[in-house]
Design a protein that fits this description.
The complex is a heterodimer of chains A (343) and B (615). Chain A has 343 residues and is α/β, with parallel strands linked by helices. Chain A has eleven helices and twelve strands. With 615 residues, chain B is α/β, with parallel strands linked by helices. In chain B, strand 18, helix 17 and strand 19 form a beta-alpha-beta unit. Classes of the chains: A alpha/beta (343), B alpha/beta (615).
Chain lengths: 343, 615
């Protein structure tokens, strides 16, 4: 994929490492994400001092303390709002948000939808482990209905959020999904997110070894992942399966899983992924695909161009600076209805 | 035809315009104020409007008012009671009768004084015939009918024509106060710049009102309020909210920074947000957030990114911002939080004034969370305290809460325009690129502030956050002794601000019988009442506080000069409680009012005399 950033004094992975210990549990998916991000950042070509990591509260949100950039570990749910201010204040910065399913789907839900609606050019890494880890195991808005947790001894009675659906509903311009156990996929997806102009949301299916171990196992398990995931790439037919012989096809306006070679189905019959389709109808279908009927969609599901908030904002500022008569506070104070009194 | 015309010279006069919220009383009030300013009167205004945008027509709840006090000498308040009341309907009359002076001139729109309107205003007796108006000079003018006729002759349809009746009122007032009608015409030309048909019709109605006044016997006496003597320079009429916004812009300019305002609309603070959106040419950004929390969080982000960051709100919004203010406290980032107070709790009285957020500003957060708290005390000095809030936040690396209130925010006064060259420089503690041995929590011993390294600067990458940090290095720390050190340092930093603010001033002698103590927006009424009693020979002085946390260092010294101290405020005694905790050696008497109304000079004088009689 082409990068949009001009390569400047290229940073190296080592530039982002800190001496301080990473305090996530052994086996937490966070370690793999951190390592992948350190690999990806040099590839974005952004100078290391222009990178800012912002987070909320939760296990995922300790991230800024583990990477050597400007960092802001903020309040529960508010990373998206704080990052909006950083980016609006200085569009020149490369802003990454690290958040979790509790942080952005529950307490920070409002900021999550509004940052996408404005399409502020930031990258959101949404660690979805479907549990509250830092408070030790209560259900979150993405916990599957019926799950037994510390606050749902009989199983949850709430319907779960699908972050992709929220992203579509909030007019998100970029949504991708990846898993913590697939560094190659993460790397491709993170790069695409960095290149996207606008709010990029990357849902990372992440394992919590302590409170929701193997919660994604059905999707990510070594034995099943090829059959239970479909990796989407723009412009390519939707093929998946261990034997690369399964695919998705449109039939009577619904998506169906088909087998190539059966019932006369060929590769040409499969849907070709169009991540750039402004109409999000098909992207909706893709983010909603669930086992066992469908494989779970991975990769860049949606990536469309739209106006970017801070570009528009600073365009207005530049225009005002060029055209307004008020160039200083003195000008302002003496503008409009002023009266001279000669005593 | 010249009638027998008498002109009386007045030192000051209070005019109240009242009508339905759609009657244009705010506009007429502003027009009359601007005209008075233009000819050199001092003035103070206060709009009084309902919480609903268009409450049911003709009802007392829907009455919108605008009071203006103009003077030949300095005026400090919009006035307790009106010399002239304009009542566009019976509801406006009913709502305002207790706010007019005996013998006042009451101008009514007789076209609206009928049974239908009496019923809406819930009048049992016809007020024009029950002797309740005897003792007043009542002018019954057919305002609606004459305005409509003239406006329709000038090409307006009947609906638009009815909107011109406020100009008939303006015309009456221009006659009554011997104002040059040309100034009113110019106001309309500028107001309706792009709509020549409205300019023409409104000017015609303005003249109709003027001519009508000239011919009727009831207005044979007119008044003259001469310009203020010795007032030289450029002046403008300015509201508190406008002045606050401009003061913050001035602070940004003096600090060499651009401003960022993250706010959510809320009465009565919204005008600050609206005002900042107009000045992108000064590099200022106004971010209309999705809620109050995002308002302050976006501002904290902008502060981290190196701007003068501000969020503006009112009481309920301050409550929502509490957690984020704590984040600014622990990250030691500069931010100004403007709280334009209104009646509470909860939604309370959204369009009315109160001072009941003081304790919330001082203490309304989790943990030991000290912030600087200052308060403006007149509409115009909102400029100075907006500037001061920016200075203290930036130079001391701390959140500053600036308290204003509905009365200051919407009220206006004549303001001598300062020159930016007369404002002090502001020096935020920025760090040079690649500075050696930069640590995020290393402090300047003078102010105890940490230094401000901005993302994008090479060699200064660091992390801040809501978890407690180790002294100097800024690493996350759960060490017990370190927490004690950091909590004490944050508190000491705020207390140290006392060395960088002016001494408390006092109006009157430094010693006496009674010291009246106020804070913030009650200044106008308190200084007027104190000055009046001083002139009667009473040993009374006023200390009006603008700096609340920390208090000025000479506070106790001032208090010790008086036999009694009376703390007057628009709450149940929050500042008194605070003073008792800071300076417990004194006894504080209280005068408290929570009616959504400002203090009145008359009630204060009664109270002061009561206390003086006990000495």
């Amino acid at each position: 994929m082409e990068t949009k950033f001009e390569p400047v004094a290229i940073a190296k992975k080592e530039d982002f490492k800190l001496d301080t210990p990473v305090k996530w549990c052994a086996g937490c998916g966070g370690h793999a994400v951190l390592s992948t991000i350190m690999n990806v950042l040099p590839e974005t070509g952004v100078a290391k001092e222009k990178v800012v990591f912002v987070s909320g509260i939760g296990c995922s949100s300790r991230f800024p303390y583990y990477i050597n950039t400007y960092g802001f570990h903020s309040l529960h749910g508010r990373a998206n709002a704080i990052a909006s201010g950083i980016k609006a204040a200085n569009p020149d910065l490369s802003v990454w948000i690290v958040t979790g399913d509790g942080d952005s789907m529950a307490i920070g839900g409002n900021h999550f939808i509004h940052i996408m609606r404005r399409n502020i050019n930031v990258n959101i890494l949404l660690f979805n482990n479907k549990i509250y880890g830092l408070t030790k195991g209560q259900y979150s808005p993405t916990t599957p209905k019926g799950s037994v947790t510390k606050t749902s001894p009989e199983g949850t009675i709430e319907n779960a959020f699908n972050p992709g659906e929220l992203a579509m509903g909030a007019q998100g311009t970029f949504f991708a999904r990846t898993v913590d156990s697939d560094p190659k996929m993460m790397r491709e997806v993170f790069k695409a997110a960095a290149e996207h102009q606008g709010t990029s949301v990357v849902e990372i299916l992440l394992n919590c070894v302590i409170f929701a171990n193997k919660v994604h196992e059905e999707i990510t398990g070594k034995e099943v992942r090829q059959d239970n995931q479909i990796y989407l790439e723009h412009g390519k037919p939707m093929i998946f399966g261990k034997d690369r012989n399964k695919g998705l096809m449109m039939k009577c306006n619904t998506t169906e899983v088909v087998t190539i070679g059966e019932n006369g189905v060929t590769e040409e019959d499969l849907i070709v992924h169009n991540a750039h389709d402004a109409d999000d109808t098909n992207h909706y279908r893709l983010v909603r695909m669930e086992l066992p009927e469908f494989p779970v969609a991975m990769g860049v599901i949606r990536s469309v161009k739209s106006t970017v908030y801070e570009d528009e904002l600073h365009g207005l500022v530049r225009h005002a600076k060029a055209s307004s008569k008020i160039k200083s506070v003195d000008d302002l104070l003496n503008s409009g209805n002023v009266f001279e009194s000669k005593g | 035809m010249e009638k027998n015309h008498r002109v009386i010279e007045l030192d000051e006069v209070v005019v109240k315009f009242a009508g339905d919220s759609g009657d244009g009383m705010q506009l007429t009030g502003t027009q009359f104020s601007d005209t008075s300013a233009f000819i050199g009167n001092d003035l103070s205004t206060f709009p009084d409007y309902p919480a609903e945008i268009r409450a049911p027509q003709g009802t007392v709840a829907g009455v919108s008012g605008f009071q203006v006090h103009i003077g030949h000498k300095e005026v400090s308040t919009p006035g307790d009671q009106a010399d002239v009341l304009v009542a566009m309907n019976p509801a406006a009359l009913k709502a305002n009768m207790k706010w007019v002076k005996d013998g006042a001139t009451i101008i009514i729109d007789i076209d609206n004084f009928d049974n239908k309107h009496y019923k809406k205003a819930e009048y049992v007796e016809d007020p024009l015939h029950d002797n309740s108006l005897s003792g007043y000079n009542v002018v019954k003018a057919p305002i609606t009918e004459l305005s409509r006729n003239v406006a329709m002759l000038n090409g307006l349809d009947s609906k638009t024509a009815d909107k011109t009746k406020n100009q008939f009122v303006a015309g009456l007032l221009y006659w009554l106060f011997n104002r040059d009608i040309k100034i009113g015409e110019d106001f309309l030309k500028s107001k309706f710049k792009s709509k020549p048909e409205l300019v023409k019709a409104n000017i015609a109605v303005l003249r109709e009102g003027y001519n009508y006044a000239e011919t009727i016997e009831a207005l044979s006496t007119t008044f003259h309020v001469n310009p203020v003597k010795g007032k030289k320079g450029m002046f403008r009429n300015i509201t508190g909210n406008q002045a606050t916004a401009w003061g913050l812009l001035a602070g940004a300019e003096k600090a060499g920074l651009e401003m960022f305002l993250g706010s959510y609309p809320i009465t009565p603070a919204t005008e600050i947000l609206q005002e900042i959106t107009k000045y992108k040419s000064l590099g200022a950004i106004a971010f209309q957030a999705e809620d109050e929390i995002a308002g302050i969080c976006s501002a904290i982000g902008a502060s981290f990114a190196g701007r003068l960051a501000v969020t503006s709100t009112s009481g309920p919004g301050l409550a929502l911002k509490g957690e984020a203010i704590g984040l600014a406290v622990i990250t030691e980032l500069p931010i100004v939080i403007v709280n334009v107070q209104r009646g509470g709790p909860s939604t309370g009285l959204p369009t009315k004034t109160e001072q009941a957020d003081l304790l919330q500003a001082l203490y309304g957060r989790n943990g030991e969370s000290p912030v600087v708290v200052i308060a403006a005390s007149t509409p115009a000095n909102c400029f100075n305290f907006g500037f001061e809030a920016a200075r203290l936040a930036l130079e001391h690396m701390t959140p500053v809460i600036l308290l204003s209130d509905s009365y200051l925010a919407n009220g206006s006064e004549l303001w001598k325009i300062p020159s930016m060259s007369s404002m002090p420089e502001i020096h935020p503690p920025l760090v040079e690129d690649n500075a050696e041995n930069f640590y995020p929590y290393h402090r300047d011993p003078k102010r105890l502030n940490r230094y401000w390294a901005i993302p994008g600067q090479p060699g200064l990458r660091h992390r801040v956050g809501g978890l407690e940090k180790a002294d100097v290095t800024g690493e996350v720390s759960h060490d017990p002794m370190n927490h004690q050190v950091m909590v004490e340092q944050r508190d000491a930093k705020v207390q140290k601000v006392a060395e960088f603010i002016p001494q408390q001033e006092i109006v009157g002698e430094k010693e006496g019988d009674l010291l009246v103590v106020g804070w913030g927006g009650t200044y106008g009424a308190l200084v007027s009442a104190v000055t009046d009693l001083k002139q009667e020979g009473k040993r009374i002085s006023l200390a009006q506080f603008n700096y609340i946390n920390p208090l000025p260092s000479n506070t106790a010294e001032i208090f010790s000069g008086f036999k009694k101290i009376l703390v007057c405020e628009l709450n149940l005694g929050q500042f008194a409680l605070y003073l008792r905790s800071k300076h417990p050696q004194f006894t504080y008497l209280q005068y408290n009012k929570v009616q959504g109304l400002p203090l009145f000079i008359s009630e204060l004088k009664i109270k002061f005399n009561e206390v003086l009689d006990t000495i």
